[in-house]
Amino acid sequence: MPAIIVGLDGSPESLAAADWAAREATQRDAPLRLLHAGSPLGSLYTPYLGVPAPGLLEAEHERAARLLSGTRSRLTERHPGLRVDVRQAETEAVPALLAEAADAELLVLGSRGLGTVAGFLTGSVGLAVVARSERPVVLVRAGESAAQEHLPDASGEESASTAYRDVVLGLDLEEPGDEAVEFAFATARRRASGLRVVHGWNPAAAYGYGAAVDSGLTAELAQETRRALGDVLRPWQDKFPGVEVHAQAVVGSAGRHLVHASREASLVVVGRKRRHTPVGGRIGSVAHAVLHHAVAPVAVVPVADVPHG
User: Fold this and answer.
1) Nearest alpha carbon to residue 305 among 279, 277, 268, 278
2) CA 34 to chain centre
3) What kind of fold does domain 4-141 have according to CATH?
4) Global pTM exceeds 0.90
């Protein structure tokens, strides 16, 4: 079975990502690989001379080896039977992570949320990985724990032994993205959790410029939207009959509603079209908002771009 890859740099965010990835690998019965990518070369070079500073490359390599070894020991102690290997890549973070992810089950990264991705995945580097990966990428914030994925116990306290919180899926009716939908349903089935599906729509789009709002037409459009949402989900409910689905057609951008739903979710799933531009891949506005502001871990799943015309 393909491995789950986690980018590790020693930051609190990447360590939380490693813990999340270990739990996910255990649940999927998949191997786990811890990857440390080479540090930016400029930080290891002597100013003006353009040559590696004495001992810095070796010291960095040894630090990475200790980090990988220590994290592997900690995870295998917590998860007996988990298969964990480690790898040090001498290349830069983006190409190293993309190369490892190419044949992986999924890639897991640490994220600070609110605008940055942590450690050697800072800012545009981390977003570049999300935008260009051909495999699902999960972003995990520091402090994320197993208990936070589960409902509180009878006394209201956090517990890792209660039922999972819902998986939340952002769904675009025009381009649902089968890959993202299947990922969300499969995750909910493995966790024996509910699946909450959120579709954002704008009733004003049905009115001409300057036209008066017709409450009757708006109600009719809302009903049609709910019906269309049910039609899209029905084949997936037939394929995953054990998953309880709660579908919502909400007015406005789905991003804001997904961020709100993340407070009670174990995982938020959004699609990202495999659409490339001259400067590389891109992340849609909904996925971008969720990545920056969601409380729960976020899975960004690349989906086939549907041509228009």
Assistant:
1) 277
2) 17
3) Rossmann fold (3.40.50)
4) no
pLDDT tens, position by position, 17-47: 999 999 999 999 999 999 998 654 334 444 4
Beta carbons of 75 and 82 less than 8 angstroms apart: yes
Q: At 130, list the tokens.
A: 């999300």
For the chain, how many residues are written? 309
Q: Residue 285 burial by CB count (10 A; 0-12/13-18/19+): exposed, middle or buried?
A: exposed
178-191 and 215-239 helices, crossing angle to 10°: 60
Q: Would you state the structure tokens that stand for residue 72, as one six-digit string?
A: 């592997």
User: What is 162-303's CATH topology?
Assistant: Rossmann fold (3.40.50)
Q: Once rounded to an integer, what is the mean pLDDT over residues 49-72?
A: 79
Closest by Cα among 136, 176, 119 to 268 = 136
What are residue 224's phi and psi, to 5 degrees?
A: -65, -40
**8-state DSSP, 307:** P
Domains of the chain, by residue range, sit at 4-141, 162-303
- Distance separating alpha carbons of residues 144 and 130, to the nearest angstrom: 20
